[in-house]
Amino acid sequence: MQVDAFLSFTIAVILLIIGKILSMNVAFLRKYSVPEPVVGGLVCAALVAGVYAILGEKITFELGMRDFLLLIFFAGIGLKADVGSLLSGGKPLLILLLLAIVFMLLQNAMGMVMASWFGLEAKAGLMTGSISLTGGIGTTLAWAPLFTDRLGIENAMELGVASNTVGLIAACVIGGPIAAFLMSRHRIAPAHGSDLDIGVSNDRPQSRLDYFCVLWAILALNIAIILGFGISQLIALSGFTVPTFVSCLFAGILIRNVVPYTLSAAIQRIWLGVDDGLALVSDLSLGLFLTMALMGLQLWQLNGVFTFIACTLAIQIALTVIYTVTIVFRLMGRDYEAVVMSAGFGGITLGSTATAIANMTAVTQQYGAAHRAFIVVPLVCGFFIDIVNAFIISAFVG
User: Fold this and answer.
1) What's residue 265's pLDDT?
2) What's the chief localization of this chain (predicted)?
3) How is the chain split into domains, by residue range?
């Protein structure tokens, strides 16, 4: 049974409302900063899996709106980023990228070891490594045919999709607890008192948005997305491609740091009020995107490879937590920004860019803003990581 696009979007809105209400009223969810979309999205995925298990009926959702919501979200991040924050992200960006590269090597090595231990072809374990976990579903779908046709691994697609499913769920869950542990263990003070990049603080009174705040924000987002498509097409002419959401991020940064200074003083005053509108629209876009992503999970695809996937992913998740707490947090500066980036690291290595940002958003809504983290993490996991991952995968396959 296929649910059409309009009804799928409506269900996503309902699930996000449910997640928001539960996160506001359940102490456990609030304490460990579990992202609101995760709560509603996983409820839907579990119900759909239950229907399949009991009735044998597959329910799928038409999720065409999902990818556009991601463009809105990243355009919003760019529109709230100033050049000073971007420049200050230079060294942390390089460090985080190097940490992610090392971890991808560990992921692939661990996957191959576990595959050999279960009596499978060692290279089949790569489908439970950086292909499906760091690369996500897009990388999985791209590489699985090669594993099947050239390496003779018939169930490569099932291994990759199942690993991506488990990794995505785990990435949504571990970010908040990691941040809570680091804040408590190292006595790190929250960063209250600064406007958030995405969403509104759980502890601060919500600002009063007026008609023009939201309307100007929507206009700015649309212009950023149009410019982002143009940038993406120009880059494509050179034979090099980047994800569209990355070009929308760059477009937002360009507009944010150029346009206000070329307009009149009256327009500049209006622009200052747009930030609250951008925060709201971006937060809703991210929430609905992640809710729809989790709605689309087909948990029954874990059948047939459950034992291997369960054991391998348990080790991969544990490795992520240990690596993040002991290495990533320390090398990223042992401060509040490092806590927020650590919360997003699980999204980089187990889930997706949106998962990383959702974890970081949930943490900053609880503890305060972390502006540098919202520049560094999207650039690492949305741009550089895919390029490096392609070379690493090719090396391991070879």
Assistant:
1) 56
2) membrane
3) 68-283+304-397
